[in-house]
From TrEMBL:
NCBIfam families (UniProt xref): efflux_EmrB (TIGR00711)
GO cellular component, one term: plasma membrane
Segments traversing the membrane: 49-70, 79-98, 104-126, 138-159, 165-187, 199-216, 228-250, 271-296, 302-324, 336-356, 368-388, 400-421, 480-497
Family of the protein in this entry: Belongs to the major facilitator superfamily. EmrB family.
Protein name: EmrB/QacA family drug resistance transporter
Length: 511
Protein backbone atom coordinates (compact mmCIF):
# COMPACT_ATOMS: atom_id res chain seq x y z
CA UNK A 1 0.00 0.00 0.00
CA UNK A 2 1.51 3.28 -1.02
CA UNK A 3 1.51 6.27 1.25
CA UNK A 4 -1.48 8.46 0.76
CA UNK A 5 -1.08 12.21 0.29
CA UNK A 6 -2.02 14.29 3.27
CA UNK A 7 -5.83 14.29 3.31
CA UNK A 8 -7.90 17.44 3.59
CA UNK A 9 -9.63 18.09 6.91
CA UNK A 10 -7.13 15.84 8.69
CA UNK A 11 -8.42 16.84 12.13
CA UNK A 12 -12.01 15.85 11.28
CA UNK A 13 -10.83 12.60 9.71
CA UNK A 14 -8.84 11.84 12.88
CA UNK A 15 -11.94 12.40 15.01
CA UNK A 16 -13.93 9.94 12.88
CA UNK A 17 -11.12 7.39 13.06
CA UNK A 18 -11.00 7.76 16.83
CA UNK A 19 -14.76 7.27 17.10
CA UNK A 20 -14.51 4.01 15.14
CA UNK A 21 -11.68 2.81 17.36
CA UNK A 22 -13.46 3.71 20.59
CA UNK A 23 -16.72 2.13 19.40
CA UNK A 24 -15.05 -1.22 18.72
CA UNK A 25 -12.77 -1.19 21.77
CA UNK A 26 -15.62 -0.19 24.08
CA UNK A 27 -17.63 -3.27 23.15
CA UNK A 28 -14.95 -5.62 24.49
CA UNK A 29 -15.93 -4.74 28.07
CA UNK A 30 -19.11 -2.63 28.11
CA UNK A 31 -21.39 -5.70 28.15
CA UNK A 32 -19.62 -7.33 31.13
CA UNK A 33 -21.52 -5.53 33.88
CA UNK A 34 -24.84 -6.07 32.09
CA UNK A 35 -24.51 -9.87 31.93
CA UNK A 36 -26.59 -10.56 35.09
CA UNK A 37 -29.43 -8.45 33.66
CA UNK A 38 -29.16 -10.13 30.25
CA UNK A 39 -29.23 -13.54 31.92
CA UNK A 40 -32.73 -12.99 33.26
CA UNK A 41 -34.09 -11.36 30.10
CA UNK A 42 -32.71 -14.06 27.80
CA UNK A 43 -33.51 -17.00 30.13
CA UNK A 44 -29.90 -18.18 30.15
CA UNK A 45 -27.79 -19.95 32.76
CA UNK A 46 -24.64 -18.42 34.22
CA UNK A 47 -22.48 -20.55 31.92
CA UNK A 48 -24.51 -19.85 28.80
CA UNK A 49 -24.56 -16.08 29.21
CA UNK A 50 -20.75 -16.00 28.85
CA UNK A 51 -21.25 -16.78 25.16
CA UNK A 52 -22.36 -13.16 24.78
CA UNK A 53 -18.73 -12.21 25.43
CA UNK A 54 -16.87 -15.10 23.85
CA UNK A 55 -18.85 -15.14 20.60
CA UNK A 56 -17.76 -11.54 19.96
CA UNK A 57 -14.12 -12.28 20.81
CA UNK A 58 -13.97 -15.42 18.65
CA UNK A 59 -15.55 -13.71 15.62
CA UNK A 60 -13.29 -10.66 15.91
CA UNK A 61 -10.16 -12.78 16.35
CA UNK A 62 -10.96 -14.92 13.30
CA UNK A 63 -11.88 -12.01 11.03
CA UNK A 64 -9.04 -9.63 11.98
CA UNK A 65 -6.27 -11.18 9.82
CA UNK A 66 -8.40 -11.03 6.66
CA UNK A 67 -8.49 -7.22 6.79
CA UNK A 68 -5.51 -6.83 4.47
CA UNK A 69 -7.03 -8.98 1.72
CA UNK A 70 -10.42 -7.28 1.93
CA UNK A 71 -8.79 -3.87 1.78
CA UNK A 72 -6.87 -4.84 -1.37
CA UNK A 73 -10.02 -6.17 -3.03
CA UNK A 74 -12.56 -3.55 -1.94
CA UNK A 75 -10.46 -0.48 -1.19
CA UNK A 76 -9.82 0.97 2.23
CA UNK A 77 -12.67 3.49 2.26
CA UNK A 78 -15.31 1.04 1.01
CA UNK A 79 -14.23 -1.62 3.52
CA UNK A 80 -14.19 0.91 6.36
CA UNK A 81 -17.71 2.09 5.54
CA UNK A 82 -19.01 -1.48 5.27
CA UNK A 83 -17.43 -2.34 8.62
CA UNK A 84 -18.91 0.71 10.39
CA UNK A 85 -22.38 0.19 8.89
CA UNK A 86 -22.38 -3.54 9.64
CA UNK A 87 -21.15 -3.03 13.21
CA UNK A 88 -23.81 -0.40 13.88
CA UNK A 89 -26.60 -2.54 12.41
CA UNK A 90 -25.43 -5.58 14.40
CA UNK A 91 -25.45 -3.45 17.57
CA UNK A 92 -29.12 -2.64 16.97
CA UNK A 93 -29.88 -6.34 16.44
CA UNK A 94 -28.10 -7.18 19.73
CA UNK A 95 -30.23 -4.58 21.50
CA UNK A 96 -33.50 -6.09 20.25
CA UNK A 97 -32.50 -9.76 20.77
CA UNK A 98 -35.11 -11.72 22.75
CA UNK A 99 -33.32 -15.07 23.14
CA UNK A 100 -29.80 -16.33 23.79
CA UNK A 101 -29.33 -17.90 20.30
CA UNK A 102 -30.32 -14.59 18.73
CA UNK A 103 -27.93 -12.64 20.95
CA UNK A 104 -25.01 -15.00 20.24
CA UNK A 105 -25.67 -14.89 16.49
CA UNK A 106 -25.86 -11.08 16.45
CA UNK A 107 -22.70 -10.80 18.57
CA UNK A 108 -20.92 -13.02 16.05
CA UNK A 109 -21.98 -10.67 13.28
CA UNK A 110 -20.91 -7.67 15.37
CA UNK A 111 -17.49 -9.22 15.91
CA UNK A 112 -17.05 -10.03 12.21
CA UNK A 113 -17.76 -6.44 11.13
CA UNK A 114 -15.89 -4.88 14.05
CA UNK A 115 -12.71 -6.87 13.44
CA UNK A 116 -11.56 -4.51 10.67
CA UNK A 117 -12.17 -1.26 12.55
CA UNK A 118 -9.06 -1.18 14.74
CA UNK A 119 -6.43 -2.25 12.15
CA UNK A 120 -7.98 0.03 9.51
CA UNK A 121 -7.99 2.94 11.96
CA UNK A 122 -4.33 2.42 12.76
CA UNK A 123 -3.36 2.06 9.09
CA UNK A 124 -5.27 5.22 8.06
CA UNK A 125 -3.59 7.30 10.76
CA UNK A 126 -0.11 5.98 9.90
CA UNK A 127 -0.67 6.77 6.21
CA UNK A 128 -2.32 10.16 6.83
CA UNK A 129 0.35 11.62 9.10
CA UNK A 130 3.99 12.20 8.10
CA UNK A 131 6.56 9.91 9.67
CA UNK A 132 7.76 12.54 12.13
CA UNK A 133 4.23 12.72 13.57
CA UNK A 134 3.61 8.97 13.83
CA UNK A 135 4.25 9.09 17.57
CA UNK A 136 1.54 11.70 18.10
CA UNK A 137 -0.83 9.83 15.79
CA UNK A 138 -0.31 6.58 17.69
CA UNK A 139 -0.89 8.44 20.95
CA UNK A 140 -4.31 9.54 19.74
CA UNK A 141 -5.15 6.12 18.35
CA UNK A 142 -3.92 4.41 21.49
CA UNK A 143 -6.33 6.45 23.60
CA UNK A 144 -9.23 4.78 21.87
CA UNK A 145 -7.79 1.28 22.07
CA UNK A 146 -6.73 1.55 25.71
CA UNK A 147 -9.36 3.85 27.20
CA UNK A 148 -12.30 2.09 25.53
CA UNK A 149 -11.99 -1.19 27.49
CA UNK A 150 -11.16 0.70 30.69
CA UNK A 151 -14.21 2.99 30.56
CA UNK A 152 -16.47 0.18 29.33
CA UNK A 153 -17.55 -1.07 32.78
CA UNK A 154 -18.23 2.47 33.98
CA UNK A 155 -20.38 3.41 31.00
CA UNK A 156 -22.04 -0.01 30.88
CA UNK A 157 -22.92 0.10 34.56
CA UNK A 158 -24.43 3.57 34.28
CA UNK A 159 -26.47 2.73 31.16
CA UNK A 160 -27.76 -0.48 32.73
CA UNK A 161 -28.75 1.19 35.99
CA UNK A 162 -30.19 4.36 34.47
CA UNK A 163 -31.92 2.86 31.45
CA UNK A 164 -31.70 -0.79 30.38
CA UNK A 165 -29.02 -3.33 29.49
CA UNK A 166 -30.03 -2.99 25.84
CA UNK A 167 -28.55 0.52 25.82
CA UNK A 168 -25.02 -0.89 26.08
CA UNK A 169 -25.59 -1.80 22.41
CA UNK A 170 -27.81 1.11 21.34
CA UNK A 171 -25.06 3.55 22.39
CA UNK A 172 -23.17 2.49 19.25
CA UNK A 173 -25.88 3.81 16.92
CA UNK A 174 -25.22 7.60 17.15
CA UNK A 175 -21.46 6.97 17.19
CA UNK A 176 -21.73 4.72 14.14
CA UNK A 177 -23.83 7.22 12.18
CA UNK A 178 -21.44 10.12 12.85
CA UNK A 179 -18.44 7.94 11.98
CA UNK A 180 -20.01 6.73 8.73
CA UNK A 181 -20.88 10.24 7.57
CA UNK A 182 -17.45 11.58 8.50
CA UNK A 183 -15.55 8.80 6.74
CA UNK A 184 -17.74 9.22 3.66
CA UNK A 185 -16.79 12.88 3.49
CA UNK A 186 -13.13 12.93 4.50
CA UNK A 187 -11.52 9.53 3.82
CA UNK A 188 -9.98 9.03 0.38
CA UNK A 189 -10.16 5.71 -1.44
CA UNK A 190 -7.13 3.51 -2.15
CA UNK A 191 -6.36 1.49 -5.25
CA UNK A 192 -7.73 -2.03 -5.44
CA UNK A 193 -5.94 -5.12 -6.68
CA UNK A 194 -7.09 -8.59 -7.66
CA UNK A 195 -4.69 -10.49 -5.43
CA UNK A 196 -5.19 -14.18 -4.75
CA UNK A 197 -6.44 -15.44 -1.45
CA UNK A 198 -5.12 -18.37 0.54
CA UNK A 199 -8.41 -19.93 1.58
CA UNK A 200 -6.75 -22.96 3.14
CA UNK A 201 -4.45 -20.82 5.29
CA UNK A 202 -7.37 -18.65 6.36
CA UNK A 203 -9.47 -21.72 7.24
CA UNK A 204 -6.67 -23.28 9.30
CA UNK A 205 -5.95 -20.06 11.21
CA UNK A 206 -9.67 -19.57 11.84
CA UNK A 207 -10.05 -23.11 13.19
CA UNK A 208 -6.95 -22.69 15.37
CA UNK A 209 -8.15 -19.41 16.88
CA UNK A 210 -11.73 -20.60 17.31
CA UNK A 211 -10.67 -23.86 18.97
CA UNK A 212 -8.25 -22.04 21.26
CA UNK A 213 -10.91 -19.55 22.32
CA UNK A 214 -13.39 -22.38 22.96
CA UNK A 215 -10.83 -24.23 25.05
CA UNK A 216 -10.03 -21.15 27.10
CA UNK A 217 -13.68 -20.32 27.61
CA UNK A 218 -14.83 -23.84 28.50
CA UNK A 219 -11.74 -25.02 30.35
CA UNK A 220 -12.63 -23.62 33.76
CA UNK A 221 -16.17 -25.02 33.60
CA UNK A 222 -15.07 -28.51 32.50
CA UNK A 223 -11.98 -28.79 34.76
CA UNK A 224 -9.64 -28.42 31.82
CA UNK A 225 -7.94 -31.56 30.52
CA UNK A 226 -10.03 -33.93 32.60
CA UNK A 227 -12.74 -33.37 29.95
CA UNK A 228 -12.68 -34.94 26.49
CA UNK A 229 -14.00 -31.74 24.90
CA UNK A 230 -10.97 -29.75 26.05
CA UNK A 231 -8.59 -32.37 24.62
CA UNK A 232 -10.39 -32.26 21.27
CA UNK A 233 -10.24 -28.47 21.15
CA UNK A 234 -6.57 -28.40 22.16
CA UNK A 235 -5.54 -31.00 19.55
CA UNK A 236 -7.63 -29.30 16.88
CA UNK A 237 -6.08 -25.89 17.65
CA UNK A 238 -2.52 -27.30 17.59
CA UNK A 239 -3.05 -29.27 14.38
CA UNK A 240 -4.77 -26.40 12.56
CA UNK A 241 -2.04 -23.94 13.59
CA UNK A 242 0.66 -26.38 12.43
CA UNK A 243 -1.03 -26.77 9.03
CA UNK A 244 -1.36 -22.99 8.81
CA UNK A 245 2.39 -22.55 9.41
CA UNK A 246 3.24 -25.22 6.84
CA UNK A 247 0.97 -23.54 4.30
CA UNK A 248 2.38 -20.08 5.03
CA UNK A 249 6.06 -21.00 4.68
CA UNK A 250 5.80 -23.48 1.80
CA UNK A 251 3.30 -21.87 -0.58
CA UNK A 252 4.96 -21.05 -3.89
CA UNK A 253 4.72 -17.33 -4.41
CA UNK A 254 6.57 -17.69 -7.74
CA UNK A 255 3.58 -19.54 -9.15
CA UNK A 256 1.31 -16.61 -8.43
CA UNK A 257 -0.01 -17.86 -5.11
CA UNK A 258 -0.09 -15.61 -2.07
CA UNK A 259 0.01 -16.89 1.52
CA UNK A 260 -2.69 -15.66 3.85
CA UNK A 261 0.01 -13.91 5.89
CA UNK A 262 3.16 -12.88 4.05
CA UNK A 263 6.03 -14.58 5.97
CA UNK A 264 8.40 -11.76 4.98
CA UNK A 265 6.61 -9.56 7.52
CA UNK A 266 8.37 -11.46 10.32
CA UNK A 267 11.80 -10.54 8.94
CA UNK A 268 11.29 -7.10 10.45
CA UNK A 269 12.80 -7.53 13.90
CA UNK A 270 11.03 -4.60 15.49
CA UNK A 271 7.66 -5.83 14.24
CA UNK A 272 8.24 -9.36 15.56
CA UNK A 273 9.42 -8.12 18.97
CA UNK A 274 6.52 -5.66 19.00
CA UNK A 275 4.07 -8.56 18.62
CA UNK A 276 5.59 -10.19 21.71
CA UNK A 277 5.23 -6.94 23.64
CA UNK A 278 1.63 -6.27 22.63
CA UNK A 279 0.75 -9.81 23.73
CA UNK A 280 2.03 -8.90 27.21
CA UNK A 281 0.17 -5.57 27.13
CA UNK A 282 -3.02 -7.43 26.17
CA UNK A 283 -2.63 -9.70 29.19
CA UNK A 284 -2.08 -6.85 31.63
CA UNK A 285 -4.73 -4.51 30.18
CA UNK A 286 -7.85 -6.68 30.36
CA UNK A 287 -6.77 -9.36 32.83
CA UNK A 288 -6.11 -6.80 35.56
CA UNK A 289 -9.47 -5.18 34.78
CA UNK A 290 -11.18 -8.59 34.90
CA UNK A 291 -9.77 -9.04 38.42
CA UNK A 292 -10.24 -5.64 40.02
CA UNK A 293 -13.91 -5.32 38.99
CA UNK A 294 -15.14 -8.45 40.87
CA UNK A 295 -12.72 -7.60 43.70
CA UNK A 296 -14.57 -4.33 44.27
CA UNK A 297 -18.02 -5.87 43.91
CA UNK A 298 -17.62 -9.23 45.65
CA UNK A 299 -15.05 -8.58 48.38
CA UNK A 300 -15.54 -4.88 49.07
CA UNK A 301 -19.30 -4.78 48.47
CA UNK A 302 -19.25 -1.90 45.98
CA UNK A 303 -22.39 -1.42 43.82
CA UNK A 304 -21.87 -1.76 40.05
CA UNK A 305 -21.97 1.98 39.36
CA UNK A 306 -19.67 2.83 42.30
CA UNK A 307 -17.15 0.21 41.18
CA UNK A 308 -17.20 1.72 37.69
CA UNK A 309 -16.61 5.21 39.06
CA UNK A 310 -13.66 4.02 41.14
CA UNK A 311 -12.14 2.44 38.02
CA UNK A 312 -12.72 5.50 35.81
CA UNK A 313 -9.53 7.37 36.93
CA UNK A 314 -7.53 4.50 35.48
CA UNK A 315 -8.64 5.65 32.04
CA UNK A 316 -7.75 9.23 32.91
CA UNK A 317 -4.23 8.11 33.80
CA UNK A 318 -3.92 6.42 30.42
CA UNK A 319 -5.05 9.55 28.58
CA UNK A 320 -2.67 11.80 30.51
CA UNK A 321 0.25 9.45 29.86
CA UNK A 322 -0.51 9.28 26.16
CA UNK A 323 -0.65 13.06 25.87
CA UNK A 324 2.71 13.29 27.62
CA UNK A 325 4.24 10.57 25.47
CA UNK A 326 2.87 12.17 22.31
CA UNK A 327 5.04 15.19 23.08
CA UNK A 328 8.09 13.24 24.24
CA UNK A 329 8.18 10.52 21.59
CA UNK A 330 10.26 12.63 19.15
CA UNK A 331 12.69 13.78 21.85
CA UNK A 332 13.22 10.67 23.97
CA UNK A 333 14.27 7.18 22.92
CA UNK A 334 10.97 5.21 22.71
CA UNK A 335 12.66 2.27 24.41
CA UNK A 336 13.17 4.39 27.54
CA UNK A 337 9.48 5.28 27.61
CA UNK A 338 8.54 1.64 27.07
CA UNK A 339 10.78 0.50 29.94
CA UNK A 340 9.37 3.23 32.19
CA UNK A 341 5.84 2.05 31.49
CA UNK A 342 6.69 -1.57 32.21
CA UNK A 343 8.42 -0.72 35.48
CA UNK A 344 5.58 1.58 36.59
CA UNK A 345 3.02 -1.13 35.82
CA UNK A 346 5.05 -3.77 37.68
CA UNK A 347 5.42 -1.47 40.70
CA UNK A 348 1.66 -0.87 40.89
CA UNK A 349 0.91 -4.58 40.55
CA UNK A 350 3.32 -5.25 43.41
CA UNK A 351 1.42 -2.77 45.59
CA UNK A 352 -1.86 -4.45 44.60
CA UNK A 353 -0.61 -7.77 46.01
CA UNK A 354 -1.07 -6.16 49.43
CA UNK A 355 -4.70 -5.19 48.86
CA UNK A 356 -7.30 -6.19 51.45
CA UNK A 357 -11.08 -5.55 51.53
CA UNK A 358 -10.29 -2.63 53.86
CA UNK A 359 -8.17 -0.77 51.29
CA UNK A 360 -9.18 2.88 50.97
CA UNK A 361 -10.86 4.39 47.94
CA UNK A 362 -7.96 6.83 47.58
CA UNK A 363 -5.51 3.91 47.31
CA UNK A 364 -7.71 2.28 44.67
CA UNK A 365 -7.90 5.53 42.69
CA UNK A 366 -4.19 6.28 43.03
CA UNK A 367 -3.05 2.83 41.94
CA UNK A 368 -5.60 2.89 39.12
CA UNK A 369 -4.24 6.19 37.81
CA UNK A 370 -0.64 4.95 38.02
CA UNK A 371 -1.47 1.66 36.33
CA UNK A 372 -3.29 3.52 33.57
CA UNK A 373 -0.27 5.79 33.12
CA UNK A 374 2.03 2.77 32.95
CA UNK A 375 -0.05 1.24 30.17
CA UNK A 376 -0.16 4.59 28.38
CA UNK A 377 3.63 4.93 28.52
CA UNK A 378 3.94 1.45 27.02
CA UNK A 379 1.36 1.56 24.27
CA UNK A 380 2.40 4.63 22.25
CA UNK A 381 6.16 3.98 21.94
CA UNK A 382 5.43 0.31 21.30
CA UNK A 383 3.12 1.13 18.37
CA UNK A 384 5.65 3.60 17.00
CA UNK A 385 8.63 1.22 17.23
CA UNK A 386 6.70 -1.77 15.90
CA UNK A 387 5.72 -0.11 12.62
CA UNK A 388 8.66 2.27 12.16
CA UNK A 389 10.58 -0.04 9.80
CA UNK A 390 7.70 -2.04 8.31
CA UNK A 391 7.16 -1.46 4.56
CA UNK A 392 4.00 0.43 3.67
CA UNK A 393 2.80 -2.50 1.53
CA UNK A 394 2.63 -4.67 4.65
CA UNK A 395 1.18 -2.05 6.98
CA UNK A 396 -2.49 -3.08 6.91
CA UNK A 397 -1.57 -6.74 7.32
CA UNK A 398 0.79 -5.76 10.13
CA UNK A 399 -1.83 -3.73 12.00
CA UNK A 400 -4.28 -6.63 11.66
CA UNK A 401 -1.75 -9.05 13.18
CA UNK A 402 -0.97 -6.51 15.89
CA UNK A 403 -4.65 -6.33 16.89
CA UNK A 404 -5.01 -10.11 16.65
CA UNK A 405 -2.09 -10.78 18.99
CA UNK A 406 -3.36 -8.16 21.46
CA UNK A 407 -6.78 -9.83 21.50
CA UNK A 408 -5.24 -13.27 21.98
CA UNK A 409 -3.14 -11.93 24.85
CA UNK A 410 -6.26 -10.50 26.47
CA UNK A 411 -8.30 -13.70 26.10
CA UNK A 412 -5.50 -15.95 27.29
CA UNK A 413 -4.71 -13.61 30.18
CA UNK A 414 -8.32 -13.41 31.33
CA UNK A 415 -8.80 -17.18 31.16
CA UNK A 416 -5.54 -17.81 33.00
CA UNK A 417 -6.09 -15.39 35.88
CA UNK A 418 -9.73 -16.47 36.39
CA UNK A 419 -8.69 -20.12 36.41
CA UNK A 420 -5.89 -19.45 38.90
CA UNK A 421 -8.23 -17.33 41.01
CA UNK A 422 -10.74 -20.18 41.28
CA UNK A 423 -8.14 -22.86 41.91
CA UNK A 424 -6.08 -20.86 44.42
CA UNK A 425 -9.21 -19.82 46.32
CA UNK A 426 -10.07 -23.49 46.77
CA UNK A 427 -6.52 -24.44 47.78
CA UNK A 428 -6.11 -21.59 50.27
CA UNK A 429 -9.61 -22.25 51.63
CA UNK A 430 -8.68 -25.87 52.32
CA UNK A 431 -5.45 -24.79 54.02
CA UNK A 432 -7.16 -22.16 56.19
CA UNK A 433 -10.06 -24.46 57.04
CA UNK A 434 -7.56 -26.95 58.39
CA UNK A 435 -6.60 -24.39 61.03
CA UNK A 436 -10.20 -23.69 62.07
CA UNK A 437 -10.81 -25.94 65.05
CA UNK A 438 -12.38 -25.44 68.48
CA UNK A 439 -8.86 -25.72 69.92
CA UNK A 440 -7.43 -22.78 67.97
CA UNK A 441 -6.87 -20.00 70.49
CA UNK A 442 -6.49 -17.42 67.69
CA UNK A 443 -10.20 -17.64 66.90
CA UNK A 444 -11.14 -16.92 70.49
CA UNK A 445 -8.84 -13.89 70.52
CA UNK A 446 -10.59 -12.20 67.58
CA UNK A 447 -12.68 -9.08 68.05
CA UNK A 448 -15.87 -9.60 70.05
CA UNK A 449 -19.24 -9.56 68.36
CA UNK A 450 -18.35 -12.11 65.69
CA UNK A 451 -21.03 -14.71 65.06
CA UNK A 452 -18.50 -17.50 64.69
CA UNK A 453 -19.87 -19.87 67.27
CA UNK A 454 -18.78 -23.26 65.93
CA UNK A 455 -21.41 -24.95 68.06
CA UNK A 456 -24.22 -23.59 65.84
CA UNK A 457 -24.99 -24.02 62.14
CA UNK A 458 -25.23 -20.26 61.67
CA UNK A 459 -21.85 -19.77 63.29
CA UNK A 460 -20.22 -22.39 61.10
CA UNK A 461 -21.72 -20.81 57.96
CA UNK A 462 -20.50 -17.36 58.98
CA UNK A 463 -17.03 -18.70 59.74
CA UNK A 464 -16.89 -20.51 56.39
CA UNK A 465 -17.89 -17.33 54.58
CA UNK A 466 -15.07 -15.43 56.26
CA UNK A 467 -12.55 -18.17 55.43
CA UNK A 468 -13.70 -18.10 51.80
CA UNK A 469 -13.33 -14.32 51.70
CA UNK A 470 -9.79 -14.45 53.11
CA UNK A 471 -8.87 -17.24 50.70
CA UNK A 472 -10.09 -15.10 47.81
CA UNK A 473 -7.95 -12.18 49.01
CA UNK A 474 -4.86 -14.40 48.88
CA UNK A 475 -5.85 -15.76 45.45
CA UNK A 476 -6.26 -12.24 44.05
CA UNK A 477 -2.85 -11.29 45.45
CA UNK A 478 -1.28 -14.27 43.69
CA UNK A 479 -2.84 -13.21 40.38
CA UNK A 480 -1.57 -9.65 40.77
CA UNK A 481 1.88 -11.04 41.52
CA UNK A 482 1.74 -13.22 38.39
CA UNK A 483 0.99 -10.22 36.19
CA UNK A 484 3.83 -8.30 37.82
CA UNK A 485 6.20 -11.16 36.92
CA UNK A 486 4.88 -11.15 33.32
CA UNK A 487 5.66 -7.43 33.03
CA UNK A 488 9.18 -7.88 34.42
CA UNK A 489 9.94 -10.91 32.24
CA UNK A 490 9.09 -8.84 29.13
CA UNK A 491 11.58 -6.11 30.13
CA UNK A 492 14.71 -7.70 28.55
CA UNK A 493 12.98 -7.74 25.14
CA UNK A 494 13.52 -3.98 24.99
CA UNK A 495 17.23 -4.56 24.33
CA UNK A 496 16.37 -6.50 21.16
CA UNK A 497 14.60 -3.50 19.63
CA UNK A 498 16.50 -1.27 17.25
CA UNK A 499 17.81 1.88 18.86
CA UNK A 500 16.20 5.22 18.05
CA UNK A 501 18.30 8.24 17.13
CA UNK A 502 17.11 11.77 16.59
CA UNK A 503 18.51 13.24 13.38
CA UNK A 504 18.48 16.97 12.59
CA UNK A 505 15.13 18.08 11.21
CA UNK A 506 13.53 14.66 11.68
CA UNK A 507 11.77 12.68 14.32
CA UNK A 508 13.29 9.74 16.08
CA UNK A 509 14.47 7.42 13.29
CA UNK A 510 14.95 3.77 14.14
CA UNK A 511 18.25 2.23 13.12
Amino acid sequence: MTMQSKPKHLALLTVCIMLATIMQALDTTIANVALPYMQGSLSATADQINWVLTSYIVAAAIATPVTGFLEARLGRKRLFLIAVAGFTAASVLCGIAVSLPEMVAFRLVQGLFGASLVPLSQAVLLDSYPKEKHGSAMAMWGMGVMVGPILGPTLGGWLTEAYNWRWVFYINVPIGIVTFLGLSAYLSETKTSRTGFDWFGFAMLSIAIGSLQMMLDRGEQLDWFSATEIWIEAVLAALAFYLFLVQTFTIKIAEGKQPFIDPSIFKDRNFTIGLCFIFVVGIILLASLALITPYLQNLMGYPVVTAGLVLAPRGMGTMVAMMIVGRLINRVDPRILLASGLLMTAAVLWEMTGFTPDVSEWTLIRTGILQGMGLGFMFVPLSTITFATLPGSLRTQGTALYSLVRNLGSSIGISLVIFLLTRNTQLVHAELAGQVTPFNDALAALAPGRIWDMATTLGKAALNAEVTKQAAVVAYANDFKLMMVVALVALPLIFLLKRAKARPGEAAILE
